[in-house]
Amino acid sequence: MPPEYLLEVAKATIRATAYCFLITLGDTGQAHARLIQPFAPNEDLTIWFGTSLKSRKIRDIRQDSWVTLAFHDPADTTYVALVGSAQVEDDLNERLQRWREE
Fold it and tell me: pTM for the full model?
């Protein structure tokens, strides 16, 4: 399969899901998985999500930026797992652009 096709299928699967699992590594090396509500992916597959800067997620990411995001679309029985580096956005204006009222 062409890589472009796989990327489009991955993006469609991600867009079809409301939630995904964010998996980080804690300070003891143990995996921490939690359900999050991400925003739709950017064209380059950047995934944004909001959380408190005081959360364990942020502490884990600051210690080890490698994370896994796992998406599942039961309607199509598809899933996508993304592994990559996460960054904490400290800029208030950037954070406010991605604020959800609910």
Answer: 0.88
